[in-house]
Amino acid sequence: MREILEEYKTSEIRQFYRSRFALKLLFASLVVVGFGIYMGDLFFGRSSLDVLLGLQSGKEQLQKRVIELKHENAALQKEYFELRQLDPDMR
Fold it and tell me: How far is CA 73 from CA 69, 80, 91, in A?
């Protein structure tokens, strides 16, 4: 009878450690999944999309402004060289 009780006690202890390990594994899995969701939201979430779209819009506006300034610069250079040809004393 004593052997049966000891065997039962050992099997209970093993079962306890198995269930404890399973809980630890479950908790670790939940932490990893939660962290993955957080990182996914951080990289691909709404705020990231808003920033990306804002930067693209700003880039387009800056490219248009560069083109406008190039045209303005060309017109001013043309005017400058025309004025310079009229005044021979300028070097």
Answer: 6, 10, 20
Are 27 and 63 in a shared domain? no
Question: Would you state the pLDDT for residue 48?
Answer: 77
Q: Based on the domain organization, do 53 and 18 belong to the same domain?
A: no
Domain that holds residue 84: 49-91
Task: Give just the sign of the alpha carbon dihedral 43, 45, 46, 49.
Answer: positive
pTM of the full structure: 0.48
Q: How many domains does the chain have?
A: 2
Question: CA 68 to CA 76: how far, in whole Å?
Answer: 12
